[in-house]
Amino acid sequence: MDSHSQKAITPEPIIQLRNVAFDFENTRALSDINIDIARGEFIAVIGPNGGGKTTLMRLILGLLTPTEGEVRIFGERPGANPDRIGYVPQHSNTSPGFPASVEQVVLMGLAQGNSLLGKRRGIRYTREERAQAEHAMRRAGVSDLGKRRLNELSGGQRQRVLIARALITQPELLILDEPLSNIDPYGRQCILETLTGLDSQTTVVMVSHDLGITANAVTGIIAVNRFALASSDAKLTPAMLDLMYGIHEAGCPVHSLLQQMVETMPAENKPTDGKTASGNSHDTH
Amino acid sequence: MTLTELLQQNFMQHALLASLLVSVTCGVIGALVVVNRLTFMAGGIAHTAYGGVGLAFFLGAPVLPTAGAFTAGAAMLLGTLTLKKRERTDTLIGVIWAAGMAFGIIMINLTPGYNVGLMSYLFGSILTVPASDLWLMLGIDVVIVSLTLYFYRDILSFSFDPDFARSRGIPVQWLYFMILIMVAEAVVMMIQVVGLILVIALLTLPPYLAERHTKSLAGLMVGSGMWSFVFCLGGLWVAYQFDLSSGASIIATACAFYLAVAGGQKLWNLMSRQEKTAA
Fold this sequence. Notes:
The structure holds 2 protein chains of 2 kinds.
Chain A (H helix, E strand, L loop, with lengths): L14 E10 L2 E11 L4 E5 L6 H9 L6 E6 L11 E4 L13 H6 L19 H14 L14 H13 L5 E5 L7 H12 L6 E6 L11 E6 L1 E5 L6 H8 L8 H10 L22
Parallel strand pairs in A: 3-7, 3-8, 5-6, 6-7
Antiparallel strand pairs in A: 1-2, 1-4, 8-9
Helix pairs in contact in A: 3-4, 4-5
Chain B lengths: L2 H6 L1 H26 L3 H21 L3 H22 L4 H22 L7 H6 L7 H20 L1 H9 L1 H6 L4 H23 L4 H12 L6 H26 L3 H33 L1
């Protein structure tokens, strides 16, 4: 996954970040980020709230421009290939009361702004477009909800509708921003099954602040807390735990909390040396 | 005067035409204002329009075109400021709101003579709409409906989820400014009917009533337009019957419908619950 990992022989990565930094109102939110992600990987981006996970995703999507460094997606600038990238925000960012059926929300994924002129437009969708929506809804497991409104659905169902909207263009890269937040365990399981059931050539990058999301399908982890550390074997390292939670305010019992978190993690995802680390190493390589 | 005789009067025909034309815009823009949560912004734009009215009086220029240009400029300024300082959106709207009104009052103060017609821009006067304004209203309708139809998919995607729309390459800032300018022109058009003080009610009450029975943005626009036309006709009838201000009568009619529907819904829910409990 990262450029210095065992996957160095993989073909040209589809996501490349080189020495990327981002300032938010004169405060450095991300610093010295170097990440390579290859086709077909399932990457979990984890870290504490406010650590820069969402900022990192927005840089990859081209919604933000890096203050320093370079981001390349499919070898081009971010945003150059909107049909090849599916973006799934948190369902709570959208209004459940919006006047649209599930099918209409999914069809919104076809909206395209490369040029304001000369594209298929109008209120009515073609039969072909509706078939695309049907296919995407089936892949996301919401094909029986097409005529319902979002406010009639559970949080997990709404999140899967947003996944269907992202899948309608059959993207090669799927970016999900905390899709498991505020979702009950059954809904989380459904979403994870939807994601793990995707074509093996589809690259998935999923943000979460929950260490427990490291599902079986995850092939790599990126820990983000202003800096980033990547692991190519889906295992948390002591350095990652330290990066995410090692810097803390005086009096905050972070280490005992981390110990508890590690103890409740699936065995295969526990840190390789079985203990949390201390210190402030921020090596992004 | 019988109803037939009344309908043959020039002023009443103009009022009915103005009701129809303003309802089209009300339906489209009201739905956009509500789904994009721009109610406070629309209120700011409406009150800023008073600056344009004052400027028109001061310059001796035609009111609607002058107010239209002034309000579009104010909407662009508001859009630019709120994009730069999102966390200060409500404060900035409040400032522009008051500044526009103050500018209008000062312009009126500086205008020689007493301006009798000024009140009609504050509270509306649908019964005095001249033919030239009807043509202007038709023009605004055509532009707003055409833009909305052409950019419908972009507007829909932007209104539901601006971040996703940006990730699809949709120029969301451009759309945002386009919507704000359409709101500005709609507001100026509605000033004739209900006055700038009451514009917000006619923009928000119809979508509130229409959204219960629609599953699409286009449906919300059509439903809101229909409710708006009902309110305008009802208000006109009330104003004529009781010799009241037409603008206030239209809004009072809308509020009465709103209370009846909301109250009816509550009553229905209560009765359904009692029936279930009894069963």
